[in-house]
Design brief:
This protein is mainly α. 36% of the residues lie in helices and 0% in strands. The protein is globular and about 50 Å long.
Length: 110
């Protein structure tokens, strides 16, 4: 979708973050895990905190979905179960994404 003919289009979140961090007048959209060098904006006076995302009060948060052709079995089911359980969610939090569980639960297991 074209927003304006003046927009630069990048094909990765990392590229967006690099461009925005190097240009004080740039704005971009991407995931929180990529944003150490950029300002994460409030929307309707709601900050993009882990708590606000978990409570569904930050308006542009989204879930990551995993799709399989059939009901997961074997190693695929084990992997999905691991991601959704506490060990996988700890890694999700460590790399900067927002876990499914409250942060106190995650932080107590790091």
């Amino acid at each position: 979708m074209d927003y304006t003919e003046n927009a630069d289009v990048f094909f990765s979140t990392q590229a967006v973050v690099e461009n925005v961090s190097e240009n004080e007048n740039a704005i971009g959209y991407g995931g929180t895990a990529y944003g150490d060098k950029v300002l994460h904006c409030k929307i309707d006076d709601v900050e993009p905190t882990i708590e606000n995302v978990i409570q569904d009060s930050y308006p542009i948060a989204r879930y990551l979905y995993l799709y399989t052709l059939d009901t997961p079995k074997g190693h695929i089911k084990d992997f999905i179960d691991w991601i959704l359980d506490m060990p996988g969610q700890v890694i999700v939090a460590q790399v900067g994404y927002i876990p499914l569980f409250k942060t106190e639960s995650i932080n107590s297991r790091k």
